[in-house]
Amino acid sequence: MKAIIMAGGKGTRLLPYTKVIPKPLMPIGDMPILEVLVHQVKRAGVDEIILSVGHLASLLRAFFQDGEQLGTHIKYAYEETPLGTVGALRSISGLDETFLVMNGDVLTDMDFADLLSFHRQSGAVVTIAMYNRSVKIDLGVIQFKDDHRVIGYIEKPSYDFHVSMGIYVFEPAALKYIPENSYFDFPTLVLRLIENGEKVAGYPFCGYWKDLGRIDDYEQAIQDFDSMRPAFLKEQPV
Question: For position 203, which CATH number holds?
Answer without folding.
Answer: 3.90.550.10
